[in-house]
Amino acid sequence: PFAASSLTYGIGGKLFTRRYSGLSGSGTDASPVYENRWIAWDSGSLTSHALSMNLSRKKKELSQLFGFSANIPPLAEKYSASYSLNSAMVKAGIHGAVSRASPSADLAPSSLTASFTLGASPYPVMRTDLSWDFAANDFSSAVGSLEYAWAKAAFTAKKSKGYTLSLGEWSADGTDYFRPYEASISFSPRIVLGGASPAGSSAKAQNGAIAEPEPQEPQAEDLEGGQTGDRAGEQEREKADLQAEEQEPPSATAGSIKLSLNPKLSYTQNFIRFTEATITASLDLSLQSEQGTALGFSASSSNKSAWRYWPGLFPSSPSFDPADYYKSIFIDLGESFSVWDSAALRRSLFKLRNLSLKLSQDLHDWDLSASLSMSPYLVTPDAGRPYYQLDFSFSLGLTWKDIPELKAKASYTKGAFEE
Fold first, then answer.
1. Cβ neighbourhood burial of 265 (10 Å; 0-12, 13-18, 19+)
2. Could you say which residues of the chain have pLDDT below 70?
3. Which residue in 66, 200, 216, 384 is a FRET match for 248, CA 20 to 30 A apart?
4. pLDDT at site 136
5. Alpha helix locations (H) across 131-279?
């Protein structure tokens, strides 16, 4: 049970050092002076001096690991210890360290972290990570999350600076302590339809088993001819296999198309500066055929002012009232899909990040691919307000499979062709 345990000691340093230390004499008669230094038992010569031990114990599905490591004199002292437990549904660990801030200082705790995980896929999984700040005598960070299938929610609290909103700008208020910092929720389902499956092979096996001929008793001429009986048996088996193939129904997946769909939606809310609230939405879609044709589509957009959907949740000040910036989420979604109305698209809080389309074809010895993508970029004119403009790019490539380095590619981006 302790097969993975280990004990290690290591030491390293500089055996001999020769360095320039100055000049002897003055003027043109000056000559360089070098200082020679041999290895000594001090921090100037030793670069590493450490001891580590790992004690591992495993019994059935439960494994435990205790670790100890030390940086020992004459180097700066630091002693660390850790313990971890790992089972099918529970994982836990703790790590702590004590060290000296200076050679003359006393040993003092310097770090302490802990983690705990309950559950395992395909069941819900809950994770918690904690970190303690000995200087402030308080938690420095705490992260908790709950994940199940394609959904995940997370909450973060940590030591952070405080801010106040005045005249539309955030400014530090001078506080710095442990507090709720951020929360997020995300959904990322993956849907796969179609594609080849080994359904036909099972039918063939069943038909072959039914048509398998029974062993025949050897005849007199077989015994005399040596292998005549074996040949007859092979002929019977070949005939049975042929009948099974004729009776096998055609595969339902022959010539089918595989569809892969992966939509993603996430929302992140900052509690310190509540105007930092982001909704990100993306869609990845791909179609693949058995003839080697593949079509891919990808699009993503983001909304960095999602707090405006629910301003009543946030505090107001004499110079700023969140309710003045309220916008209905349903109206905003309608405007974001109004591709026929450019004014509505500009009013929408959702902004396109990128859009791409890719088509590839397997040509046996060659791979042919073409892609078209677009993304917005900020244009700052000499006069007037900055504005966003879509940047289109197109590429066409041909690659030889046997020698991937042998390829040709042409692309168009920012109004110019490249090869």
1. middle
2. 1, 195-255, 404-410, 412-419
3. 216
4. 85
5. 199-211, 220-225, 228-247
Q: Which helix (H) or strand (E) holds 332?
A: helix 329-336
pLDDT score of 214: 45
Q: Is it true that the peptide bond before 180 is cis, omega within 30 degrees of 0? A: no
Q: Is the pTM of this model over 0.90?
A: no
Q: Is the dihedral of CA 213, 216, 222, 227 positive or negative?
A: positive
pLDDT in tens, 58-99: 888 889 999 999 999 888 899 999 999 999 899 999 999 999
Q: Which residues are registered as beta bridge partners of 159?
A: 178
Q: Report residue 179 as tokens.
A: 């507090």
Structure tokens given for 12? 């390293």
- Peptide bond just before 315 cis, omega within 30 deg: no
Helix, strand and coil content of the chain, in percent to the nearest 5, comes to 15, 55, 30
**Which uninterrupted H or E stretch holds 330?**
helix 329-336
Beta strands in 88-137 (DSSP E): 90-99, 108-118, 125-133
Helix axes 199-211, 228-247, angle to 10 degrees: 140
CA-to-CA distance for 182 and 143, rounded, in angstroms?
A: 10
User: Distance between CA 169 and CA 185 in Å, rounded?
Assistant: 27
Instruction: Provide CB contacts within 8 A for 33, sequence distance 6+.
Output: 20, 21, 22, 23, 24
**Residue 393 burial (10 A CB sphere; 0-12, 13-18, 19+):** middle
Strand intervals (E) in 119-190 = 125-133, 138-148, 151-166, 169-187
Cα torsion angle, 39, 42, 48, 54, sign: positive
